[in-house]
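Local shape tokens:
==================
===
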Amino acid sequence: MSAPVRAAAAAPQAGRAERRGFSVHDLWPPLLTFALVIGLWELAVRLFQIPIYLLPAPSQILETFLARPAFLLRIGLVTFTNAVVGCAIGVSLGCLAAALCVRWRVVADGLVPLAVAASAVPIIALSPLMGIWLGSVSPLSKIAVVAVMTFFPTLVSVYRGLVSPAADALMLMRSYAAPQRAVFAKLRAPAALPFLFGALRVCATLSMIGAVVAEFFGGPQNALGVYIKTQAGILHTREAWSAILVACLFGLAFYLAVVLAERAAMPWKRSR
């Protein structure tokens, strides 16, 4: 691929990569905000003597978590596994559909508007239906909910990335009689990488939320959603909040894994 084409392909990436590299200074604002929120929460509970069944203090939640960390992490891993598998399926199908939309315009005209509309469907409306179709206790229904949640954002984002190369770059590739496969591999796919990882960051958090919410409508006892619903139903709010804490930890770990993969796949973002 010639230098002008490489430059044209890299322009959208470079334009979006004008962010600074990771530094310690990036950490203190969110850490300070987190500490401030937790401190105000603890102070409010103790100052106003809020009953524990309404809102336990963060220290009480942490104490409950530390009393049974192995159990909570084990049931969290069950939910996390469903989230990761569902996310992998949804993202893979979303990328495949986006490639088909680029290859055949009629597919894009029919599918992309539908994907935008489908993204507005609340997940709480899908979960009971998936339970009926695939089994309310089966992990397949949870995986399917997560796959649907992650499919449409990936499709829309990756499609935007695949059509983002400049018209001049596409014309230059065609003037060299480059086959469609080469145009896709050397121009469209690199241009879509920032869009793909942007979608993955969103899907990483969506998938954990989807897996937990899907379990509210049925699932094995050793799952976070079922545990949260059961404990909240009998006003054991400390236990329910400790499970929410585990869900946050797994969701954060998933998000950080995506960020690390992004930095490995696009090292030019790290160098800026």
